[in-house]
Amino acid sequence: MPYLALDTSTEHLSLAVTTPAGIVGRDWLVGQKHAELTLPRLAELLAETGLVLQDIEGIAFGNGPGSFTGLRIGCGIVQGLAFARGISTLGISTLEALAQSASANKVIACLDARMNQVYVAAYVREADGWREATAPTVCDPHALPLPEGEGWLGIGSGFAAYGAALAERLGTQLAGIEPELFPRAAEILALALPRFAAGQGVPAHEATLVYLRDKVALKTSERVKA
Asked: Which residues form the Gcp-like domain (predicted)?
């Protein structure tokens, strides 16, 4: 049964589908053009893999945290496609998907939240999946929650934007960084498949997003101070 996944939480557009040969994913750097490019790129991916929308049995998506606009666009597209087909949806944390992209077993997944903040969570890979070592939160880089122990790999755009501050905060706990990694639909789909199989999918109207904060932008006075 083919499944689809997408992520629009960053400046990348990421899509993936299951095929008999495994998961096929594609990623594009699109800036803020998710609304106009997601469906055309999806059509290309389906054609490439010999699928049509009527084949899809469920849709997984990165449900945050991330770009407010990007998340809403992605969720809206997922709801529209799923409602039209009468199929289930499944939201996957973008931070967990980011962790899934790493080869390490102890990961600090960190996304640039703008406004001098980061979205962050720490994960430990176990036999049955990822365990949260610190819960997802939004914070100042200097106030990042510290996981226990050393040997942590820092990944994601948060380390690209605030690498020095995060390195100072983590000290010897940080074993290395891979700031180029981002949440990808292929990892979202890998995480979602066993959850779909366990019956965790929900109807389109129940698809929800995780923002972690309500404030979208700084006021002019706050930007000046920053």
From this structure: 30-143
